[in-house]
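Hey, quick one: can you model this chain's 3D structure?
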Amino acid sequence: MLKKLRLMVAMLTIIAAAAPSMAAEFVFHGDLNNRFNLYSSHANLYKGAVLEKGVAEQGGAKGAVLGDSNNTTWGDAKYRFWTEAKSNDGKIKGVFALEVGAIRFGNKDQGGAFSGDGKNIETRWLYTQFQVPGSAQKSLLTLGLQPYKVNKFVWSETATGVKYTTDLYELAWMRGYEHFNTSADNDRSSADGFSARVNLRPNENVKLGLFALYQTQDPDSATPGKVDAAQYGIKQMTDVEYDIYTFGVDGGLTSGNFFVNWDGIYQAGELDNAQFTGFTATTTQDFDLSAYLLHADVGIKMGASKLTFTSWYASGDDNDTDNDLNAFMSTDVDTFDSIVLFEGGYTDDNYMTERPYLFNNGLFLNKLAYDRKQNDKTKWGLAALYLLTAEDLNGEDQVGTEFDAYVSYQLYDNLELALNGGYLITGDWWNTVKTANADDNIYRITSRVRYHF
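Sure thing. Here's the predicted structure for all 453 residues.
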């Protein structure tokens, strides 16, 4: 025992002596988020990512995403810890982040039941970033699992790959899925994305971004890749052969208390040997993609208050039976503008869809929001939304009118208490995607206790 103690002391002494020569600075961060679904009139809509997992899995019959009325209360915990190791000269940084994600209270499979045993740890970030030698300006190379953003409507999530960033532009290669290549003449089997972005600042009041993204995948399979109308997104197309090009412009302008933000995006490309299924099934064929999204925020700041009008139009597909796809598709994004439909609820791992549209019908969203910072500790806000699909579903495009509200309070500097809720007066669009006995209106109330450092 004495020998082991001496050995341990010797090792600690060596490490302590070597620390100055390592020339590294370690920083530790945490985001400890405890969330509660206090009430929802249709808890089955929030069993998970309903559209991401498929309507058949969630609602039984195809299309029944809104089942019979039911309600429940649940709590969950989502904790993230990350460490940054930086060189003293600031030219190298390594980041490692672990996340224990959305463990529902009492869920045995997630480790939330008795004894807490379960597999629930996720690697969130794992990357190294360093300044490229020979450049006096910002010139960063980032390799690994890292935060990645082309545009908030196109692709804005963690991804693995290589990214080169300067103050003016960014170049990146990201891989979403790896498919083992079994063909000698196929050199692009995996799901790869190649992006270029230019960030301009004409003056201190104007931001302007130009971007292009090319995505390709060829799973090298004779089996047709399936595309579900309810799972319409590039991340969900794991077995589809495609070549997709996305071009866009985004930015913002401020003038005194007035501000504007904008996005304009166009997509083109092909999906080959694909079988498009959903509310109207088609035969296996090749599809041509041509789609777009337009977005704007217009607002004004009035002292401690802010008034913002948000609108976007994501194009939809008007004919499921031809080989033209006109519905805009995101890759991997998080959308928060609706508490009822998107991730605006604080239990934001449970939502109808994370994408800024519904099925392959697109979306026309209009939102008026009022936010106020009441004092140093309290913020609150109200919002009204009017939602339609860009293209109708069985002749209907009225999604409905939604009313949202929130309040947050800083109990301590790093500890937030928050409560929000949303109520959607549903339109006729839901008639096709609900069971016969489902009530029309949908609402939910969520809260959180969040410690962030």
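One thing worth noting: The helical segments are 2-22, 50-53, 55-59.
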